[in-house]
Amino acid sequence: MKAIVVLDQNAGTAGMRLTTHPDPSPAINDVLVAVHASGYVPTEVDWPSTWTTRAGKDRSPSVLGHEVAGVVTALGYGTTGLSLGQRVFGLADWHRDGTLAQYVAIESRNLAPLPGDVDFTVGASLPISGLTAWQGLFVHGRLEAGQSLLAHGAAGAVGTMVTQLAREAGAHVIGTGRGGDRDKALDYGAHEFVDLENDSLHDVGDVDLVFDVIGGDIQRQSAALVRAGGTLVSVTGPVEARPSDGLAIDFVVEADRAQLNEIVQRVRDGRLRTNIGIVASLDDAVPALNPTERRQGKTVIRVLP
Ligand SMILES: NC(=O)c1ccc[n+]([C@@H]2O[C@H](COP(=O)([O-])OP(=O)(O)OC[C@H]3O[C@@H](n4cnc5c(N)ncnc54)[C@H](OP(=O)(O)O)[C@@H]3O)[C@@H](O)[C@H]2O)c1
After folding, report:
1. What is the pLDDT of residues 146-173, one digit of tens each?
2. Residue 287 falls within a domain, yes or no?
3. Ligand 1 centre from 29 Cα, in Å?
4. Which single residue of 4, 35, 89, 249 could bond 100 by disulfide (Cβ 3.0 to 4.6 Å)?
5. Which residues, including other chains, have CB under 8 Å from residue 292's CB and lie 6 or more apart?
């Protein structure tokens, strides 16, 4: 099959190649998915899981991409819950070959049915940003109606999902980002916007929840804003700063069929808008995944037109 692989950790994203790669075969409880569309997170080449199996063995050349929308073409031994020919979307295992390929083998439980009225491009844009937002807000952050949220990177892939889900849940959303992102963040539902390059985070006052996608000094300043009993959640790695009287939680997004169902239902009924930037074919994927200009939204690769 055709796939986008990386060969050498030191080469970074510049080491991406479109090449031929052995077809995957579905293991116990897996499905084999014919990939129609694939999503990619720009930091993937830096993740240890891109380079090793769970047992710590080198698994390069590795196929990139962890979000998929496609059609089930084979079932592994004992696989239940999904059937041949079914449209699906979801999250591929971090330690296995990914979704920037014509086929991917994924555990059935990591996928959800993709309704017929939701396009494959949209389906592939949702798993990581949607599940990360859902889990950060409701699982780890325990957000409730009436609470205040500081949503960093509010115009980004995760941030636009965070902003919309939090607003729907009845929170007061203070989005942040670069100055040029103000209109986009407000358009996706932020009540207020803080320009991190020109405004002072100190002026925000106390908040119940911080959703951090930036880390470093922004995370440190934000921890000080969490009111007693509140929470800082971060997806940038181990938290470096803790609220004085609250929780600090870093997490890695997990596959969850029920949450994927909730997310895609919101897309169908208009409560959730996707934030898709570049859409390119597999043949054009390498330059699309290495843009020379600032990315705007999620890059989705259409493996099948
Ligand atoms: N742990 C997990 O499970 C998990 C899951 C999903 C994502 N992540 C991580 O979360 C981060 C965000 O992901 P994403 O897909 O939402 O990325 P994204 O689409 O690039 O969004 C991030 C947004 O934050 C902005 N931003 C970053 N640093 C900033 C700064 N210092 N000041 C102002 N704005 C800043 C970015 O602007 P610029 O583009 O101009 O920098 C962008 O608008 C990435 O590091 C990703 O690896 C982790």
Report:
1. 999 999 999 999 999 999 999 999 999 9
2. yes
3. 33
4. 4
5. none
Q: Is the CB of 178 under 6 A from ligand 1?
A: yes
In a domain, 258, yes or no: no
Distance, CA 130 to ligand 1 centroid (Å)?
A: 14
Report the CATH number at residue 175: 3.40.50.720
- In this predicted model, what pLDDT tens digit does every residue of 71-82 receive, in sequence order? 999 999 999 999
Domain that holds residue 87: 2-126+274-302
16 and 64, same domain (yes or no): yes
CA–centroid distance, 235 to ligand 1, in Å, is 9
Reported as a single tens digit per residue, the pLDDT across 240-267 is 999 999 999 999 999 999 999 999 999 9
Residue 257 lies in a domain: no
Ligand 1 in contact with 300 (CB < 6 A)? no
pTM over 0.70: yes
Judge whether 223 lies within some domain: yes
If asked whether residues 110 and 134 sit together in one domain, one would say no
How far apart are alpha carbons 178 and 79 in whole angstroms? 46
- For residue 242, CA distances in Å to 95, 118, 247 come to 30, 40, 7
